[in-house]
Design goal:
The structure is a homotetramer of 351-residue chains. With 351 residues, chain A is of the alpha+beta class. The first copy, chain A, is built from seven helices and 18 strands. Chains A and D meet through β2, β3, β4 and β7 of A and β2, β3, β4 and β7 of D.
Chain lengths: 351, 351, 351, 351
């Protein structure tokens, strides 16, 4: 069905499973003449690769991008950009023990219910590995957005319930948690070690911001900018909540507190997170996603087989302790895909 | 653009502004043979009308549904269902004072930025009044879902930061706050009176649940069931956050706490909120939306005119204190639209 | 399903049956600031009304347009334009005799097969009456195209196998057959009288041309400009064939004859009909549609009832002898809808 | 933009140019559990390869399919099917002479107008080579349709104005013109030799039929089955006309001749080509496409460069004399894609 595509004009369609030959996709609607190379995309893919932080496994998973079409002499041609990332490290045998087991917190049960057939090796299409295609497509969007000076940044604002106390987006580029607060790193590292020792896992909250966004992006009613962002982020596996600007806190404030008043220079605050009535206001866009703890844990859990037998499961091995920080570039990519699309839609009809 | 349509197979397209002749829409993809009458839709519209609760104005706003096509002898024919709700109470003069003012928290500024032209009377297309079409379309979806015994319920779980302490969805039908906790009503009523006296407004949190949902709804990757729900709910004006199941709390729990283990009878908990890997699990679907306080307040706020002059604004008159409870049937409608669509998509390809 | 919508950015969604309360639709994606009034649309609707020519019945069918949204102070606002045309002349009793009969050449049989339920009064959703919404939406597109000096014209190039011998599009505005050849009118009138006397009906061929189209419209691969045009025109009831430029004749010519060579001033011929590799070339767009004879005829035909009984049918009364000329503004409207959409898509990504 | 995708539920998205690394695509919406292998797809690709007939060049162009996802243990999983066909025979130098020339009848001029940048090597995205992805996707559709016993066949009914005099679809499988009339082969072969000697090229007409189609496929109004077919076929490069059933001939017949009357056993004729009011009737589906002569010819033609200089061009080398028969499996593939999609849409809402 259409669930493998995202976007209306700037649109990506992806394919691929964790244990097939590879993953990839097609980016449609990228304007012609945008500089694009495999290196540009590779840089973003490298941010997603495992082993970036203490919460990651040491699995060697080299994601090498191949651009298959749509780029000629270093620039986009305006036609479909096909791309491919071969799988390197499949090791199907790792997963044979769980062939008939429903791993708690995973899609094993629901995929069986939906399709009646399932590639049990590592989650198949439901594997987090599909996000490599999102990041690749997002990297294309990024090159387009760069030509408009729009800049999107993402970082971890909370890990396992411990929030960053300061937010310096620049700082997030330099550490293994994508933390905007270097001072919180020791606490987070301790937390990860502790939870790892317990055979357990952690979640967190990621914030994505976009600067230099023009006012006027988004559509009235169903395709509000924030609606598209929520759609984009909630579609990333492990995300269980999305909020814009003051978000859930807005529901506990009063109108006089939450409204962003205006002065001569424009808005005097940004509780709206850069979106008013679903349309960008020209302020910084601010969106956050709540990421659940990785469901694959070493601790023993009750579960059942696909044949209905009760049993127990302990998922050892090379699993991450947290989707953070690997999910950070994925969420950033999704925001870039939304913005590229909204920019083009607005171009189409702008007065 | 396509922002006035929602859904892939079961799909609604709406039109209308607060101060034009009326609002309405077209529902496509409703299967043939479903019993449908204007009364069935009217019942849902009446839940949305003002004056249901102490937080509402006394504006008389009779929303009378007219089915214009797609129903023959009391049943849907499978063809497009056109519907129309004439505007009754337009009183454009109420709004003339704000013709050139940007009301804080409203879309006045962003609509001007986007379109360069704006129906200033009551917000035009950005008015909450557009939700009447969502409720009408949702009522059609509801009749279809009823034939499958799927039942969707919505209620207020928090008002102005004060949570309901118990959740009995049945109880929510009988009171003016759509509260599932009758004992919290006095506190909420006091809070509303207090805030009204301050010329201020309140937000809250609404929960929507769906029972008897089959496992298998939702698509992998971008069109996960929770992604579609987040898209649907975040697109409702005033919603600033959406979460599924344990939501933001999941980000603060550990895998061993958040995973829903399984026993012989199925899942032993429902932190997932009925969605695993984006596909319904057959458990109760649980989704929540954070609603910001109504931006129209009597208290004086700084703002600017469209000509760039600084000024102040106080919005008196007949405005609600909170979007709750009027937003409750709107959010319920959006969930029903998502579910009807997902049921049909699954029918198309199920093995 | 999505079959009631057409277009990607400039997009219309319609509803309505011949014997319900009325018909209408929603136009999305029309840029803001375009002058638009009910009169502008009414003018196009009047071209479609019955009684324009000798091939038409004298049925009084006043199609009065009501714009319900999206226009403010005489200009489009950029938001959804809802419109409505009430049915005036329903007389359901005329159709009661054919309740259970499958009229040859009509959709009675196939609608029963598809939906299992059918509004038998006058064809329901399959009635040619649905085209009134296409004409209304096309009139909106026309006002947008006018701002770009793009002009679309349609006329009859063949009636009942008798071709117009000259083509002067201007002349087509002044006669009841939309004939671009005034000299052919007596032959066509005689033909109509003759066929009417036989209780039979006629088809024909309609040509639609667009002038001043910019080069560059259309998308590679599936959404070629000619593909979208074929989609648009073949979707009009009674159309059984579509061709672009030299069309079917191209299949019988040689490359050296069919290729449009180029000189200093551009193309030296226009066999391509203004479309090369699916993209507009800046030449005049030329497309033709083959219209089958009206299936409702007075002559006795064999048919069956929905219960499988063989029987005969003679459809007397007030039916047209030919879909021409009423279909002419419908086909023109469809071409305008395609062009408006393609212009906006090109605006979105043009370098 | 969205022009690289086709279909609503059963949906293909393609990418690739004649001179890049390769071509491919993604098939979404294929139901799970359908037997699928690379061999099944390869068989269809082989029907499209050059050198099948006297009208083809001897270029060696091995199109080897690689399935990258969506198939597990020989069956579709219901998730996205990625596929890839590497380019083997690129020889970019062949095209260097035409870098700045606009080849008559090709998209060189219009692609420049649209994108401002163009991969001049062999047409880039406008190359007929893109159809390899259509055939691959169509082969997937075919395997799905087989499970429903729906069978689609395509053959050449006219070459260079010389029609086949009999139509035996089985016979078309065995000869190099896909001719359903073995007796016409000598005439066609002579014609090809003659035209080849003139340095010229030929067009023709291809017919596609589908048997055992259920009644009820197609949507009212814009997505009629014939509209989708016209859209699908006209989108194939070189197609300039499409007709259903009696097609253009219907426009010259009378209602009493063109209507398909019904008897006890059903329809007594099939002028409708299996589609009534846009919905399949259960009769054989019959659709024809007019194919223009190949524009690349050895004969000298006038043209201009992208810098506006008049010049002449003669395209020698290894070009086909006609798109027939290589276009035959492409057109068949497009019809299968439409039918697979329409079957799934009908499944979704059928009563």
């Amino acid at each position: 069905m259409s669930g493998d595509s995202f976007g209306r004009i700037f649109r990506v369609t992806t394919f691929g499973e964790s244990h097939g030959p590879g993953l990839g996709g097609v980016v449609q609607g990228c304007p012609p003449g945008i500089p694009l190379s495999e290196e540009m995309i590779q840089k973003e893919l490298d941010l997603r690769k495992p082993g970036r932080g203490p919460s990651s496994t040491r699995r060697k998973e080299e994601d090498r991008i191949h651009i298959l079409s749509g780029v000629f002499e270093g620039r986009t041609t305006g036609t479909a950009i096909g791309f491919y990332i071969p799988n390197q490290d499949q090791r199907s045998r790792d997963y044979s023990a769980i062939r008939d087991l429903y791993r708690p917190g995973h899609g094993d049960f629901t995929y069986d219910a939906k399709f009646g057939i399932r590639d049990h090796r590592g989650g198949g299409r439901s594997s987090g590995r599909e996000t490599v295609s999102r990041v690749a497509a997002g990297a294309v969007a990024q090159e387009f957005l760069k030509t408009l000076k729009i800049r999107v940044t993402a970082y971890t604002v909370e890990l396992g319930g411990v929030p960053a106390r300061t937010v310096n987006p620049e700082a997030a580029q330099d550490n293994s948690f994508a933390s905007p607060d270097p001072d919180i790193l020791p606490s987070w590292e301790n937390l990860v070690q502790e939870v790892k020792a317990q055979g357990d896992s952690l979640g967190g909250i990621v914030e994505v911001v976009a600067d230099n966004l023009p006012a006027g992006l988004g559509q009235p009613v169903f395709d509000k900018l924030d609606a598209r962002l929520a759609y984009a982020l909630m579609g990333v596996g492990a995300v269980k909540g999305v909020e814009i600007g003051s978000g859930f806190a807005a529901s506990r404030s009063k109108g006089s507190q939450n409204n962003d008043q205006m002065g001569k220079e424009g808005f005097l605050s940004n509780n709206a997170g850069g979106v008013l009535a679903g349309i960008s206001s020209g302020q910084t866009l601010v969106v956050r996603a709540a990421v659940k703890p990785i469901p694959s844990i070493a601790r023993t859990q009750k579960t059942m087989t696909r044949h209905g037998t009760e049993t127990e499961i302990s998922i050892g091995g090379r699993h991450d302790i947290s989707a953070i920080p690997r999910i950070v570039p994925v969420l950033k990519a999704m925001v870039m895909l939304v913005l590229a699309d909204m920019v083009l839609l607005q171009r189409a009809v702008k007065p």
